[in-house]
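Narrative of activities, Objective 1.

The group set out to show that a structural description can be obtained from nothing but a protein's sequence at a throughput compatible with the screening campaign. Below is one input-output pair from the validation batch, recorded exactly as produced.
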Amino acid sequence: MDLVIDSQINVNVASQIGAMFLDVGIPFIAVDIPHPGCFYFGADNYKAGRIAGRHLARWALRNWQGEVAQVIYLGVDAAGPLLNSRLTGMSDGLIEFMPEIRNAPSCHYDTKGGQFAFTLDTIRKHLRRRKGKRVLVAAVNDSTALGALQAFRDMCLESECAIVGQDASIEQGRN
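Output recorded for this entry:
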């Protein structure tokens, strides 16, 4: 083996995985989640999130005149703070264009590794408790964004949400 390129999101084992290869002299490139001592290839997550948040805010201003009832943030806690800095960026991007969004109710959900099915179930439960209108959803990746979209569709609330995700997933919304 001459080189390892890996993309795994569990920040709790990143050090051990990287150390295994470094100890035997095999170069390691970590994709999306940095592994201490290894080369990192990934986005500036905060900056990417801020761009997404700005676009979400512009959409809400153009289509809902800035009237937002709630904001849902969908993260991947196992991936650690670097990947989830996308959510901080999204929040900052929203606030930059819509300072009053600070007053809107918001909630954060861990999506257990960014899973579509888990996110779908979580957002369905959320919508049963709080049938929101004009809900912004800031998702750390596309699979969670698509899970949230499907939940809104299932509850016949698709027109009441605006969702932003990241990663350029090949999957499309499910019917």
